Amino acid sequence: MRALAATTFVYTALVACGPPSVVHPESAPALSAASRVAMDTAPKEDLRLVPPEAYMRSYLQWFGALAPADVQKRAKGADGNQLFDSWDDYLSAMGFPDYRNDLPRAQQTNAIMVATFERLAIALCDRAVEHDLKSLPVTPMAERAVFAFENQEPMTEAAFAPRFDVLHRTFLGYPATLAPGPVSRSHIYYGLFSEVVAARQKSKAKARFTPTEAAWAAVCYGLARHPETHLY
Amino acid sequence: MASHGTRKPTFTEGMLMQRRTFLKLLGAATGLGVGHFSPLGQALAEEANAGHFFVCIHASGGWDVTLWADPRNEKLGLVSPASTENTDTGVIRRWVDAPLDGDTRTFALVKPAGSNIVFGPGIGELGDMASRLTVVNGLAMNTVSHPDGTAFSATGRHLVGGRVPGSSIDTLFANEFGLTQTFPLVSVQFPSSYVGDNLDRRAVPLTIGSVGTLSRTLTRSTLYDSDAERDKVTALLGKQARELAAESAYPDVMQGMALQYDALRAMLGGKLQDVFSVGGLQKAQPQFNYKARFASGTAVNMAFAIEAMKRNVVRCVSFAQGGFDTHNANYKTQALVQQDLFDAVAQFVRTLDETPHPTLRGKKLADTTHILVMSDFCRTPQINTGGGRDHYPNNSALVISPRFKGNFVFGKSDKEQLLPAHAKRFADGDRAIAPPDLLATMLSAVSVNPRKYLRDGEVVPELLKV
Fold it and tell me: Any idea where the domains of chain A sit in the sequence?
């Protein structure tokens, strides 16, 4: 019994006073994949309205980088055709805040805002058709505000696509071929273009624009009013 | 009380009939074992509230309640009443001199025949309609900031930082009753807000600076583009928005925009732009005073409201009238600003009495129109060194509604300091009434469960007709 106690004591002392045990690092084995999922790139926030200041700055830029008063003058024109009134008429509907009345900026679109965007876009596009496509002598390409391409009659879908892409990049900021949707956006807008041309060719009503000019105007304000122009 | 002609029901009869129908429907709902705000009860209530209209008016700047709803004509405690020293009394029709201090005169209280309500002289012609008025006094505002008071009055919530944390009452009415209208809510400089997930995008307030904007925004030249071409483009954009919504993880905004493109087509198809021009409205509704010094814009807004309701294209119209923020010598006009506003409201009510309802046979617009008039807060009981009154955390409000008790005042302020006093025992104890309570009561009056939208506020049944 005494011998066992002594042996235990000696063994314990040897273990306690011995060198520390060392764990050598080694790489862990790779985990096996249980399943694979695609990376979630969906935006985690709903779309927001482009601030009215940013929209107005873009609008002035599309109009040829003019000052607001000059845009107003050019958009109204001298022919009394009610294409544009004055900026003051549109500011509240565009969603600008009114600090005089402590009214905050609009955070959402509404139907009157959409109506205002239409009115503004029509003024822009109609004046741009006059300036870029209709004026004589022909406006040099470098001086064109919106339609930086040559018109062509008749307009085939193949000829339409690159011209539409110019407008798409101008208003929406990216190539038309990348636009989401089940059908090519260029094809959809070519449909609009063709319908307007066909309707104008049938119509006997007096109009300022030729069928293709009116169709380009429609395509132009169909992009300048596009939801992607106003939301981000 | 307005007359509706010999063969048609009077206003009161109209109210009773309508209330009877309403109670019948609610009774049926209760009989079926469903609660007042249960889905079935709600559906029945919607039926009972079909064709109702809402008008919200903001007296912007903070009004002096001692000149109309909570009149004071004695020096007591902090209170220095309006007097000939600080008010242009000559233009105030209901101002009758009463003794105050030496040569200085104050006003005699206004108590029209048959009225249970005592007014100040700012009430103008509206005093003659006391039987239709519900006055709420001693509204606890807990703020003297314009933006905060405005938001609190309109939404029942104080600002969070600079942000409005709740939807305004006009938006809630539009969301409940106006989604199928061409204009669910037209907001002319009213502090309208749209906040929250349980709202339809069609109820987003159509905010404009003036009614003229509406007409100008909808005007289209026909020399360059045709109506058909523009409509084609709008239809295409609506389709694009729907397709983008279908591909989006958060489709609400895109779907909302699609609905707004549809609404635009309806607006332009209705050819409303000429009707809603300022000139057109003045011609159509000549009875309003378009030359009133402080309420000319209000008159145009009211004419718009009448024309839009007559055509059944709107559900709620809200607008503001300024001129109430009288810190200095401009306090002299405070009573006139009030008189102009309340004269206009009186004319508005008379016009509602005479105008047939667009969808309910035999009814007048007055039978189904609910009017709320509110302000940021009230003004101090004492006159400051500039001769004006500053901001004060008390308030009053006015309701004209077929569902509210007429000839009735609820709530009070204390005599010496004009601060809100306990109005009754609420669920959370004795306290003064506050804007969330009034807003909750307004929602409840048209059978909307206030808890659906409001965080605070308790329905005050005393304000409602039994």
Answer: 52-230
- Chain A nearest C-alpha distance from B205 (Å): 7
Domain extents for chain B?
49-219+273-463
Q: What is the DSSP letter of B370?
A: E
Candidates A11, A219, A8, A50; CA nearest to A121 is: A219
Interface of A with B in 98-157 (CB under 8 A): 98, 101-104, 106-116, 118-119, 122, 126
Q: CA A46 to CA B140: how far, in whole Å?
A: 37
Does ipTM surpass 0.90 in this model? no
For residue A137, is the peptide bond before it cis, meaning its omega torsion is within 30 degrees of 0? yes
Q: What is the pTM of this model?
A: 0.83
Token output for A110: 């509404």
* Positive/negative CA dihedral, A36, A37, A38, A39: negative
CB contact under 8 A, A208 and B228: no
Is it the case that residue B146 has pLDDT exceeding 50?
yes
pLDDT-derived band of residue B383, with 50, 70 and 90 as boundaries? very high
Q: How far apart are CA A92 and CA B260, in angstroms?
A: 17
Q: What is the DSSP string of B428-451?
A: TEEE---HHHHHHHHHHHTT--GG
Question: What's B9's DSSP letter?
Answer: P
What CATH architecture does domain B49-219+273-463 belong to?
3-Layer(aba) Sandwich (3.40)
Residues of A in contact with B236 (CB under 8 A): 188-189, 192, 222
DSSP for chain A? -HHHHHHHHHHHHHHHHSPPP-PPP-PPPPPPPS-------S-SS---BPPHHHHHHHHHHHTTS--HHHHHHHHHTTTT--S---HHHHHHHHT--BGGGTBPPP-S--HHHHHHHHHHHHHHHHHHIIIIII-SSPPPGGG-SS--S---SS--HHHHHHHHHHHHHHHHSS-GGG--SSS-HHHHHHHHHHHHHHHHHH--S--SS-HHHHHHHHHHHHHHT-HHHHB-
Q: How far is A81 from chain B (nearest CA, A)?
A: 6
